Amino acid sequence: MGTDEQNLKIALIGNPNAGKTSVFNRLTGLNQTVGNFPGVTVDKKSGTYPLPNGSKAVITDLPGTYSLYPNSTDERIVLETLLNQNGSTYPDLVLYVADVNNLERHLVLLTQIMDFGIPIILLLNMVDVAHSEGKSCEENQLSIKLGIPVVKINGRNGEGTKDIGPVILQMEGVNCEPFLNVEPFAFELENEVKKMFGITNNYRALLTAHNYKNLDFISDQESTRLDTLITELKFNSVGLQFDEIMARYDQLHPIMESVVVHVKEDDETKTAKADKILTHPFWGSLIFLATLFVIFQAIFAWATYPMDLIDGTMTSIIDATKTMLPTGLLSDFITDGILAGIGGIVIFIPQITILFILVSLLEEVGYMSRAVFLSDTLMRKFGLNGRSIVSLISGAACAVPAIMATRTISNWKERLITIFVTPFISCSARIPVFAVLVAFAVPDKAVGGIFNLQGLVMMGLYLLGVVAALGSAWVMKLILKSKDRSFLMMELPTYKMPYWKNISITVVQKVGVFITNAGKIILIISMVLWVLASFGPGNDLEIIEAKTRSYYVDNTISGDELNNIVAAKKIEGSYAGILGKQLEPAIKPLGFDWKIGIALITSFAAREVFISTMATIYSVGSDGDAESVMAKMRQERHADTGELVYTSATAFSLLIFYVLAMQCMSTLAIVKRETNSWVVPMVQLVYMTGLAYLLSFITYQILH
Amino acid sequence: MSKSNINKRRATDLKPKESSIILEFGNEEMSSKFLEIGCRPKSPIQLIRKGPGGKTMYFLVNGHAFALRTEEAVHIILKY
Known about the structure:
The complex is a heterodimer of chains A (704) and B (80). Chain A has 704 residues and is an alpha/beta fold. Among the domains of chain A are: 8-171, Rossmann fold; 183-247, no CATH class; 533-703, no CATH class. In chain A, the strands form three sheets. Chain A has a seven-stranded mixed sheet with strand order 2-3-4-1-5-6-8, sandwiched between helices. In chain A, strands 7-9 form a two-stranded antiparallel sheet. In chain A, strands 10-11 form a two-stranded antiparallel ribbon. In chain A, a hairpin with a 3-residue loop joins strand 10 and strand 11. In chain A, helix 5 (139-146) packs across helix 10 (237-259), helix 7 packs antiparallel against helix 9 (220-232) and helix 20 crosses helix 21 (453-479). Chain B is α+β, with helices and mostly antiparallel strands. Chain B has one domain: SH3 type barrels, CATH 2.30.30.90. Chain B contains two helices and five strands. In chain B, strand 3 and strand 4 (64-69) form a beta hairpin. The chains are: A alpha/beta (704), B alpha+beta (80). Chain A binds chain B through residues 66-67, 69, 71, 102, 104-105, 108, 238-239, 241-242, 245-246, 249, 266, 271-272, 275, 279-282, 284-285, 369, 372-374, 376-378, 380, 386, 485, 487-494, and chain B through 1, 28-38, 40, 48-56, 58, 62-69, 72.
């Protein structure tokens, strides 16, 4: 992307639902990178845009916000970026996207940014939509009245976007005249703040006084000084915010009257008609449930085909690598450590991709905000917000992206509870474990003619996850105290045809973020586990191997079978085996032996590793299929008592454990990143695993 | 800003399909949030319907659709 210093830095700003993302995708295409804003966890999307004079601009897509008085982490970024003149993301120029259909409201934020004096260009978006609804806008008049360049564009078909480049070149370095005179609002305080920070701009000073408690670049010392000033000068922040925004509307209103032409009154639009059904308390809820059903169907049924394909491909790659490389530690490390780890990551890609496609499709057409509206009342009973529904749905694929989706929840208590309970929703990594154990413990027979008993138990396990999530949320609601006001207050945008380019870019980026965040951890843990399972104290493993081979020396078993038995004996003597045995006394009351103990440890990479670990332990080879593992498990007896290890009591106990326990390193890492401390992930680890232990214990003791 | 909050007609008093005009806001902290989303004094407001459970409301303000909770909408005070 070249060095940031040489390129013109452009910030793309606008209200939510202004069509900013379409414009961003139009301007930068696939030349986008996702990074982080310094110090915070909000994704920073940047892309390069070629200017007509041959140089390049770097455009950063800032989160959509209504004003410079932020409610959520996302919105705070916009303020912080504009206020911190020494920050690495401080823009040379602002491209402001506004929706013509809702122009007056969209221009409030524009006028706030104008008051900073930063060069700014107004992009009037979705011109054709406005025309069909009977609104049109005299952009030349608007440009004269606001004193800034105005470009009419259509983010969806790209119309007008080629006109932006030349205007950027004209505007470079041309500071904007303030729109509103903010001096009278807090004259004395503004002057004090200006002196304190060595700035000259009144609005910059005023906003610093309003928001200093939420700004990272303000030092504690400066903050204390501002506290004193604000008390001394009786600065009424809340009241002045209202007065300021009202003053902006008062000044904008006559301009709007003269430039926006209403051709005809809006009659009952398509959106209103659709919402009659889609937001209906009964029919709307039913459609929402049906939508959820389709999402789950997609994740479970449709994703199996590409997953089987990936599974098969990975197995052949591993086999091919094994034959290509000379046998030995290096070959084992590459195949069982690295390649198995990579396989553990790519296997999730189909489900996650399908989920992201559906979720961004629902967002793109405008349905997601209706889902939030429909579920808010129910969610609030459990201390959550309507917006939590997006995370809970995403959690069915993977908790990592689901937890990242909580950023739109402005109330920290609701956001924290959502982060805390989302991992209870059964993610795709649990499916293979469920499938094996359910097939093991539950007979494959029909119930009531149409249902399959195994299917019903699977559904019961998912419900258990949902109940655990909502129940825990309810308990947390009672424990956590928060003075922050909780908001629903949400725009319900008009329904739009999906713009596939937006969806595909979003999906590619989100899958990319998953691979780099979760993938990295899965790969590292896979390698660490390989080391634990391949080495033991001293030369124990060599002794075990030699002993085993000499024991079977006269037997007529095949070379493969012998190798599998050796592998099983070696894992028993390895560090992983030792850990499993040390764990055994603790998990014995749940019906688990040390072999399951090893599998519980290896599941920390990703839960589905359970299957391959059991395959190794039961000497069917690490790429052994689920059926041969199950056949071995059926015969397994406790060494001391001779009783069968895998009774249905053990299987159910293990199932409950996998539904509830926090066994995912990637999730813990993302929770740490989103909450900025290890406290929440550690509490989550102890709580979830404790609950799993307790319920598995009860299950086993009752069924046993 | 209103001084006495009793006997005022509020957005929560609207019946489905009923329209009115916003007079002012009854809560200082919420009022700037209302302004940001385009709800402001003199704006026409119509209740479209209530959500499941009756705790959320679907409004049309200046022709644009919004979802509010009843405890948010109660701070919108209507003319007369």
